[in-house]
Amino acid sequence: MTTIFHPVTTLAKSVRRLLWRFRHPVSLPEEIADALGIELSNNLALSELIRKVQAPECLPQRLRRFMPREEAEAAFKMAARRESFRYSSLYSYYFSGGWVEFSLHFDEWGRLRRLYVIHKEIEEEGGMEMPLTT
């Protein structure tokens, strides 16, 4: 019985994804959700997405303090833009309301120490630090 509905379900998901692309032509909220290991709906407006990511209860589940650089950077594979520096990396997602960026900071041994989210709606200079569990 599930095989009859499988093509319909797949078609519905494809149509939904196409509609989301009209709202978010470059990056989708689910790409950020996947990178952080949190839940975000693609139906979110950018300001709602920023509020959710800034919320104190938003704890990245996929990233943890002291994880190896390679693992931390792999989480952001869907970013529209990637930049890597000696002790940091910057991953950017583009939305019609501007760039949402994640700045990862590493120690001299290549272990993740800090994570910041940066967007023009975030008042903290240098972005807002997101909490990391160990």
Describe the structure.
With 134 residues, this protein is of the alpha+beta class. The chain has helices at residues 2-23, 29-36, 46-54, 69-74; strands at residues 81-84, 88-95, 98-106, 112-118, 128-130. It has a five-stranded antiparallel sheet with strand order 1-2-3-4-5.
Main sheet record: 5 strands, antiparallel
Helix content range: 25-40%
Distance between the termini: 45 Å
Strand order of the largest sheet: 1-2-3-4-5
- Count up the helices: 4
DSSP strand (E) fraction?
Answer: 15-25%
Assign an overall shape.
globular
- Based on secondary structure, the structural category is alpha+beta
Evaluate the radius of gyration: 16 Å
Number of strands: 5
> What is the ordering of alpha helices and beta strands?
HHHHEEEEE
Query: What's the overall average pLDDT, rounded?
Result: 87
